[in-house]
Description:
Blueprint: H1 2-35, H2 43-65, E1 68-72, H3 80-84, H4 86-107, H5 117-130, H6 151-154, H7 157-163, H8 168-190, H9 192-212, H10 214-219, H11 222-236, H12 241-252, H13 262-271, H14 275-294, H15 304-313, H16 338-345, H17 350-379, H18 385-402, H19 409-426, E2 429-434
Antiparallel strand pairs: 1-2
Amino acid sequence: MRLSLCYFYKKKLIRKANIGLIVLIVLENLFLFYFYKARVLPNTWNALGLYISSLMFGILLIAKYYNKEITIVPNPNKTAVSKFAFIPFFILSLLYLGYKSQNVFKTIPIDPMWSDVIPAVKIVVKRFLAGSNPYLPMTALGYTTPVGYLPMHWLPFVVAELIHIDYRWTSFATFQLAIFVITYRVNKYSGYINAIVMILLALFANMLMLQYAPGIAGMSVEIMIAGYYMLMITALNKKSTFFIAFFITCCLLSRYSIMFWLPLWAFVLLISGEGKSFLRIIVTVTILVTGIYIIPFLSRDWSVFYKTNVAYSNMSWEWQHLCDTGLPCHLYNGIGFAHLFYQKYGAGNYMKGFYLLKNTFFIVNISIPIVFGIWYWFKRHKIDYRIFLMASFKIYISFFLALILVPYEYLMITGNFVSIAIFAEQARYKIKNNIQ
């Protein structure tokens, strides 16, 4: 009787934790796409809500699995029907989102007057196919510094250029591939009900994005990069060293968001008895980065990486890009804390706020992995390293995006969609017992 009560209590806590994680995913997307735009919340409160909901997701994940022994067991009740029951729902979601995305693409043309992201990618791709240096300055778009896009930001669009389709379908396809992979894995280990929940969460987030922030899909390639990060989360839970190395490389060679967290990932693997896997991954990542970026592109001009990073770290001009309100557009958009640093010093001394935020950004994002590394050293026997890596990345990315120098809306979606991938992966783990 006592054992049955303990089992019931444990299952109830797990169920509550899962509901809590789902609620936090929903809140993250409402804060990013809806509450501020619908004037439900003012700027600062909305930014705070997005940050807290994102941070709490990682904290709740640790709380759920702390001091727990876990295992992965394929769903034992899998029938021929349940194996594929999620696929009709995925196809319906795919068709609906494809239809909505097509409407967005028709409404928002690829035009440098609206956004130069995709026009810049097109220039780089065409240079590459013509055999010229893709990283020369794009003077046609008014840039005098070398191109800042790393290869995995633009190489996938070579196929779109060759077969003459809208580049934005490449981003869409990459993102939907990530959704399919995480849904398939959930279905395999947790059953089709959980897989359908995953589809609904992804559908909900996409519907909000296409309705209230269509420019993300229409003027950027960020959903492709979000797809990389989602697949990287999946890779952390696989034994294939190549799969892990490939998607770490995709993340490294698209956005720098993962950079400060990688030393923590390395430390955790090394002290968790995964030293051989770590070495294989590092060797593979080195080969991939060398083959994809260093030899074909960086070796042509070794100063390109430094010049582009200097240009990106000096984005104070966006702090002077004012809207009709007389305030910087991309600082007062309901996300990130950059506006607090701006208003502390005012328009007259905005550069003081810019440099204070810049220093804060680096200090915090270097400190978070160090603090987590120390915590894990003492608690490594209390939590599975894979759960810890997912939770620590989610908490790290919450700080990274909250303190980013210019909180562009499209950059924030990676944090939101990573939550969906983490929820999917953690759902595969079964809690067996408390660790004695």
